[in-house]
Amino acid sequence: MNVSAFIVFYWLLISFLIISLLFSAAIAAILLYIFRKINFVSVNYRGKKVVNSLGLVFGIDTLFYLPIIYLSLNRDPSFGSHPNWWLIAFATLAIGTSVFGLIDDIWGDKTRGFKGHINMLLKGRVTTGFIKAIAGFILSAVASFYVSKTVIDLVINTFMITLFINFFNLLDLRPGRAIKVAFLIGAILFASSYFSKSIFLLYVGALIVLAYTDLTEKAMIGDAGSNFIGAMIGLIFATEYNWIVNLPVLAVLVLLQLYAEMSSFSSFIQRHPLLKWFDELGLERSK
Question: Given a cut of 60, is residue 286 above it in pLDDT?
Answer without folding.
Answer: no
